């Protein structure tokens, strides 16, 4: 098993589950495709108990995966997992026309020149792209590099939970897949997705030509929560509960609400800088729509704040909003509530249809 973007695009009709293994939660989704529409067969989310010990964290993560499968009631153990963050690099490439047998070597040489990761201990893969009207034989595509350590870590967690990771994908590319299936991509503009997790934030930009821009920022929801907690001498659990409306004290709600803009300022500035950097790239298509997803996207005040600070209107990315759901009403309502944190798992599941 390895990171194989080429195979992921045409995996066939194997029954699998999209499994998004995060730091604080595990999400799983299985889809069915009926014509040009997707429907949700099953989906589940389980939080991971926090632990500062890496070995214990692995155990608690595998336990969360097992709980997800038990909650979903699915028998299949075949999954597509994703890797992301600083252990993954995604870049576009464009070569003069080359014979097909030479492209792989050219991609490897390109990776050695532009990638900050150690190529010798990483998986290198690529996907060729062809836009409508583009001349045949052009060598344009997406280059992916992921560390062996990151790939093996997700594989090990899957094995510990008794599931079979038959493919590894890139989380940022899975997000693009989700956006394209749920809302489509315009020929004259790009779409950006900002996924804010607990430890990191991913900025993913795509256009209808197949180009992909992925940048990972080393700050997420936890950093914002920790800044607020330190400022007001609160525990991070208290701040998290307040932001997610689990705490009813009006005084604390107002105090944390006032602190949120300053606490989130650094992350939002980094996102804006990333959008400006993308806009300066050769051939960049203007971003006209911005989606927000990830666990911290469920913090309503943070979504409002992003809307006021980013250059385009920010919309929550809820992949289930336009999908038929085969589960009961109670579980369907739960999925709609947590939809923005299920986007990567949904994109991983789409790779298999």
Shape: globular
Task: Tell me the name of the CATH homologous superfamily.
Answer: ATPase, nucleotide binding domain
Which fold does the CATH topology refer to? Nucleotidyltransferase, domain 5
Q: Give the integer mean of the pLDDT values.
A: 88
Strand order of the largest sheet: 8-4-1-2-3-14
**Counting H and I runs of at least 4 residues, what is the number of helices?**
11
The tally of domains stands at 1
Structure in words:
The chain is of the alpha/beta class. The chain has a single domain, classed as ATPase, nucleotide binding domain (Nucleotidyltransferase, domain 5), CATH 3.30.420.40. The protein contains 11 helices and 14 strands. The protein has a 6-stranded mixed sheet with strand order 8-4-1-2-3-14. The protein is 40% helix and 27% strand. Helix 8 crosses helix 9.
Which keywords apply here?
6-stranded mixed beta sheet; single chain; 14 strands; alpha/beta; Nucleotidyltransferase, domain 5; 11 helices; globular; 353 residues; 27% strand; 5-stranded mixed beta sheet
Mind sketching the topology for me?
Layout: H1 5-9, E1 17-21, E2 25-34, E3 37-47, H2 54-72, E4 78-83, E5 88-95, H3 100-114, E6 122-129, E7 139-147, H4 148-160, E8 164-170, H5 171-182, E9 190-196, E10 201-206, E11 212-217, H6 221-232, H7 236-243, H8 250-279, E12 287-293, H9 300-309, E13 314-316, E14 324-325, H10 329-338, H11 343-350
Parallel strand pairs: 1-4, 3-14, 4-8, 9-12, 12-13
Antiparallel strand pairs: 1-2, 2-3, 5-7, 6-7, 9-10, 10-11
Helix pairs in contact: 2-4, 5-11, 6-7, 6-8, 8-9
